[in-house]
């Protein structure tokens, strides 16, 4: 597994406002959207492309087009949905699959309540979206499922990661074709499994509802 922390002043600026407890849901949603496009720029550096011929008003030249099969973008509901528009703006030809997952707040174990994507992902490049990598349970389960379906290249785009979650991913997905792109790796997890300093519950802050 590869970890890429995007070190850029615009990313740091937007992330700081996201962290601020005074930031309301509409602003949180807008900033998440903007931050995802910046992270997506890095995350798609190795997206597969083909060379095509383009006729400009002046001459014929070589151009670039996203390859087929198209990339698959998979937001992890609920909070990952807040990242979908920002990602598909950069990857307009991508297909979208959905994964509904929730972490038990007592045991911190992740469970899956909805899956809607192709059974066969052979050879596909996948971008998984989830704002928070905390214990790593959710992303490890999600990515294992994608690899089991044949995905050959999985990139997780997350806003924030905890070092504990990164270590779990590195252990559980060692040697697998997996990359994590994040805006920051924070200090630690607290006793409730929340990232410190973090930004709180991403789903609640995006949608204004607890749960
Ligand atoms: O790394 P982990 O310890 O597994 O925790 C991270 C998960 O927790 C949050 O989702 P949550 O379960 O709160 O669901 P929600 O998106 O519906 O709020 C977050 O969006 C991740 O999916
Ligand atoms: O800090 C955290 C940890 C898990 N899920 C969140 O939304 N926030
Ligand atoms: Mg939540």
Automatic annotation (TrEMBL):
Pfam families assigned: UPRTase
Keyword Zinc tagged: no
Binding site for uracil: 195, 200-202
Enzyme's top EC category: transferase
Keywords assigned: Allosteric enzyme, Glycosyltransferase, GTP-binding, Magnesium, Nucleotide-binding, Transferase
Domain Phosphoribosyltransferase stretches: 5-209
CDD domains: PRTases_typeI
MF (Gene Ontology): GTP binding; magnesium ion binding; uracil phosphoribosyltransferase activity
GO cellular component terms, semicolon-separated: cytoplasm
Enzyme Commission designation: 2.4.2.9
Cofactor: Mg(2+)
Cofactor comment text: Binds 1 Mg(2+) ion per subunit. The magnesium is bound as Mg-PRPP.
GO terms for biological process, alphabetical: UMP salvage; uracil salvage
Catalytic reaction(s) noted: UMP + diphosphate = 5-phospho-alpha-D-ribose 1-diphosphate + uracil
Binding annotation for 5-phospho-alpha-D-ribose 1-diphosphate: 78, 103, 130-138, 201
Keyword Ion transport among UniProt keywords: no
Pathway: Pyrimidine metabolism; UMP biosynthesis via salvage pathway; UMP from uracil: step 1/1
UniProt activity-regulation remark: Allosterically activated by GTP.
Described function: Catalyzes the conversion of uracil and 5-phospho-alpha-D-ribose 1-diphosphate (PRPP) to UMP and diphosphate.
Stored HAMAP family: Upp_B
Family membership: Belongs to the UPRTase family.
Protein name as catalogued: Uracil phosphoribosyltransferase
Organism: Kitasatospora setae (strain ATCC 33774 / DSM 43861 / JCM 3304 / KCC A-0304 / NBRC 14216 / KM-6054)
